[in-house]
Amino acid sequence: MAEIVPYGPNARLNVTINGQNGDYPDLVDFEMDDGAVKTVVQEALQSGYIPGIDAVEGANLDDFVVDRFPAADDLPPRLMLRPKTPFGLGRCPSCGYYGFNGVECFDCGYRR
Amino acid sequence: MSLPTVTIVGAGALGSNLAMIGRNLPAKLQVLDFDRVESKNISSQFHTYMGLGKNKVVALQAAMRGLFKVKIEARPVRLVEDNLKEMLGMSSVVIDCTDNYESRALIQRYAEWHGNVQILHCCLSAGGDLARVVWTEHFSPDYEGEGDVATCEDGRNLPFHVQAAALAAQIVQRYLEEGEKFSWQLTPYHVLRIA
Predict the structure, then answer these.
(1) Are B27 and B5 in contact (CB under 8 A)?
(2) CA B12 to CA A62: how far, in whole Å?
(3) What is the pTM of this model?
């Protein structure tokens, strides 16, 4: 008999757009990929399904990011879709320094 | 008992207002910025016409002393690798209010080298309607591609910037007084704890 693995929606999905913020009313799967999150939110925004956020027709979420926070203390697992905040740098895939802006590294000059 | 040092890097829309609102923090305040006050800054930053043309932290120091009789340490320098230790070495908390990639990366690098300094990142979205005030362990940088993005070209977002600065001051106050580290995000009518 196949093992039954507990699996299902377990995370809260919070959305920030146009200076408004709200929680998607249903729980979602924490492992859902970014593209799927954006699709869910885009459709929900169209119908005005997210309390606290005015309906948005055809929202462009291409430049939005999804933060993922596992459960901690009194907070459940959360996905947070939000606009980018500028001047962020990640680790360079070449030198490992926090200098990579997604295109080039300020430290070693690596270019994607 | 000596007070801890809190260093604000960047005296622009967030940093200058944070210095003003955080003036009663139980700490010595040190502020770093190499930039000078321009007339376009007056509408959105805690800088006045009396400081026009001066270095931002020198102008801020004079304003804080003249208006509130509060002493801040002014460091009119650009943060570079060679002065990282000298500028941040005495700090218990560094508040990143920068608006450029290089300074933010240097602060992140410093945090990696020195685990005992606490870094609070303050970030605004380009639209000026989202602020993230996040301790470095909860912080995920966003790749933006090339070029800088202006976050405030006029004074329209001043109330929101002051809100974000006040939130940062509260977060640091809570850390200094209770040792608790919470991270938050802010939209104009909504504040949300994220960690």
Answers:
(1) yes
(2) 29
(3) 0.87
What backbone torsions phi and psi does residue A80 show, to the nearest 5 degrees? -130, 115
Q: Are B110 and A66 in contact (CB under 8 A)?
A: no
The interface predicted TM-score of the complex, written ipTM, equals: 0.75
The one-letter code for the residue type at B147 is: G
Q: Can you tell me the distance from the alpha carbon of B91 to that of B124, in angstroms, rounded to the nearest whole number? A: 24
CB within 8 Å: A102 and B143: yes
Contact criterion met (CB below 8 Å) for B41 and B86: no
State whether residue B108 sits within 8 Å of chain A by CB. Answer: yes
Question: B43-74 pLDDT, tens per residue?
Answer: 999 999 999 999 999 999 999 999 999 999 99
- All residues of chain B having their beta carbon less than 8 Å from the beta carbon of residue A16 are 130, 185, 187
Beta-bridged to residue A83, according to DSSP, are A64
Structure tokens at A30: 């924490």
Q: Comparing C-alpha atoms, which of A18, A4, A5 is closest to residue A57?
A: A18
> In sequence order, which residues have a C-beta less than 8 Å from that of residue A74 and are 6 or more positions away?
none
B52, B62 contact by CB (below 8 A): no
Judged by CB atoms closer than 8 Å, whether chains meet at B144 and A102 is answered as yes
